[in-house]
Amino acid sequence: MACRMPFHLRVSSDEDDAVTLRITLEEESGSRAQFRLEGRLVAEWAALLERECVDVLRSQRRVRLDVADVNFVDRAGLEVITRLSRAGVEICCRAGPVASVLEGEGVPVTREADGVDEGWP
Known about the structure:
Blueprint: E1 3-12, E2 18-29, E3 32-41, H1 43-58, E4 62-73, H2 75-86, E5 90-93, H3 97-104, E6 110-111
Parallel strand pairs: 3-4, 4-5, 5-6
Antiparallel strand pairs: 1-2, 2-3
């Protein structure tokens, strides 16, 4: 049974356009956790995402970051994902612009069609 701890973050720009990132922690088992992201990964939320993932990593758990529902990543978000990947976090994404940007920056991406659920309950 997954334990969901959602963080729903919303910030408004000067033009009143909402920039939202939803981070849901889905605990798959005692040794594994998955963060599911939805929306835009921008500087305002990149540090929070990194802190949350690092806290889970420190507890000696495997971490997967599912960015399949992310539609935009800015430079700060890309830098955080790169650091998390280097720290051992598995980055999962469907084929598309976000996956292309991550792979172009050297971030290994597990594609949804590549069996994202292998090894995970």
